[in-house]
Design goal:
The chain is mostly helical. It has one domain. It is 68% helix and 0% strand.
Length: 78
């Protein structure tokens, strides 16, 4: 009769914790870049709308005093 023994170390659990921490850190950096990109886009859109005449804004159903609200009212919550 043959007997076998299995021996597991705690290494997979340790690496799992390290990998989870790395994933969390990279995810946070990714969200930071996405947020920066979104805000840069909004700033560019704000500048473009501010350059327009009142007639051009009216064609888009906007008033000059509503530009900022129009751009920043669609914030992604997540």
């Amino acid at each position: 009769m043959a007997y076998t023994t299995q021996h597991q170390t705690a290494a997979p659990e340790m690496f799992g914790g390290v990998l989870a921490a790395i994933h969390k850190a990279l995810s946070a950096v990714g969200h930071l870049f996405l947020s920066f990109g979104e805000q840069t886009y909004r700033l560019h859109e704000l500048q473009e709308l501010q350059k327009m005449s009142d007639e051009q804004l009216a064609a888009r159903n906007l008033k000059r005093e509503d530009i900022v609200h129009h751009i920043f009212s669609y914030q992604h919550v997540g």
